């Protein structure tokens, strides 16, 4: 709807198609609305752009998977209206880029682990901050940085465990609250290169006080069980 004139534009869709339409996002220049259409079987997701001035709807790209596809509840725009996404197209949740100028999707990371969230994008410094499980899947929300083309990946949490990261508004610093099996909840502040600047505190290790030792262990599984 045009707030100045009150005019309402209806985006044309196939009313006979058994599908869902959801999760619209305005481009940074506010000229186009990006939205998604998902078929009822949830095996094919299509991205479209709609220009309310020209009333033009154009297809961008689609995602197909034989079992299940989900809506993107988050996408991260760049200044040229390209955007980053987290997708599981290769079996792992990796970072992809829809390039507006080339009109194509490019896979930026090829991890064999899960990317959880993109936390900060600084195009002037060619930097993306994100978190994920890392190769040690006992970790959670480990903080990483990389360049916008997916190269130069660096872990900057530097501690094994479960993390909760709070970034400064400009992405230059972060507070990491973390713990693992041997370490009680701890907090420190560091810069975006991972250099620790100051410890902020740590809970009492009640296991140590009680004389309890904690350690990881594995339990072998059976490939075939007879009942």
Helix and strand topology:
Elements: E1 19-26, E2 33-39, E3 44-51, E4 56-64, E5 76-77, E6 83-87, E7 94-99, E8 104-107, E9 115-122, E10 127-132, E11 142-146, E12 154-155, E13 162-167, E14 173-179, E15 186-191, E16 196-202, H1 206-209
Supply database-style keywords.
single chain, 227 residues, mainly beta, Neuraminidase, 2 domains
Folded structure, characterized:
The chain is globular and about 70 Å long. The protein contains 1 helix and 16 strands. The protein is mainly β and 227 residues long. The chain has a 4-stranded antiparallel β-sheet with strand order 1-2-3-4, with no helix packed on it. Strands 5-6-7-8 form a 4-stranded antiparallel β-sheet, with no helix packed on it. The protein has a 4-stranded antiparallel β-sheet with strand order 9-10-11-12, with no helix packed on it. It folds into 2 domains: 66 residues, no CATH class; 100 residues, Neuraminidase (6 Propeller). The model has no long low-confidence stretch (mean pLDDT 88).
